[in-house]
Here is the input.
Amino acid sequence: MLAITKASLHSISRSPSAIVFSIAFPLIFILVFGFMSSGGNINVTVALEQKADTNNVVYNAIKQIPGLKFVKGDTVKMKNELSKGRITAMIDIQKSNNPNAPYIINLRSSEAANPQNVQLVKSILNAVIGNINKGTYPNAPTIALVNNTVQQVPGRIYRTIDFILPGQMGFSLLSAGIFGVAFVFFNLRQQLVLKRFYATPIRRLYIILGEALSRVIFQLMTAVIIIAIGHFAFNFTLVHGWATFGSIMALSFIALVLFMGFGFIVSGVAKNESTIPPLANIFTLPQFLLAGTFFSIDNFPTWMQPFCKILPLTHFNNAMRDIAFEGNSLLDSWGDISVLFIWIIIVYTVAFKTFKWE
Here is the structure.
């Protein structure tokens, strides 16, 4: 088994396609989005303080502004989102004792938020107030005042790379697991290598494990390279350092085992080498587009999101982002990981039925 592993690993390292799909493509995306995200988060997402006064013309006006995206949630969740910079500011509208300004608007932001976005929120609010003054309260100095002092809470910057890199890691593992395994085992079967292995005293399980182990070793090495470049070049967040890195590698191993199962299915079903790409794309393309690889699945229509949440790559991406940025352990992300294990059982049940030695 170890001899097969060593020979197969040597073959993979000399394959240009393996290098390109496993390392080059993900790194290109990471570099592009890494440089694009150097300025920080640019989304203007806001929330309303729980005790804010909403029975007034000011709130009715600002909630209609397309430049402000209001999100809702309980106090603890909103506080966490604010500290991570995912919410630019919390808006608090209260009645004022100042007869010349019936309302006052206080903002609470985070050190993790982009200061330009905070200033943009203030500018939007001032513009809304100006329009109300002109139209509804021509005799009053102003309907409301925006407090220039913005309360700051400590936070951790959520960069674009913190979203993109887990998606590219999933891209690398999925591509290698499906395309790599499918082409290799189909060619081994076509060249009668598997048939010859089958005739030797080697146990059949060791033959499969030898080939699979080589791909696991190679892909985990590429995962280390991707994480290292993301962390040291673009400040990809690893909350607990080496502990977070270890959890990510364990998660990557689980996902790779699953994705290789899809590769076994394709290699067993394919009639010839030209049918492998379209069959593989049935598994890969929907996940590349719908599993939150490049952008959040929240951007999709509501009716499509349940399908997105079924895809295994969605749960890998979610778990890796939670582990890397939120500091979750594998146990904390067990909901996503358990879905991966369910997929492993389903996929390898099908792979066992479809696998062929000749």
Remarks:
- Strands lie at 45-48, 69-71, 89-95, 103-110, 144-146, 151-153.
- Residues 38-42 have pLDDT under 50 and may be disordered.
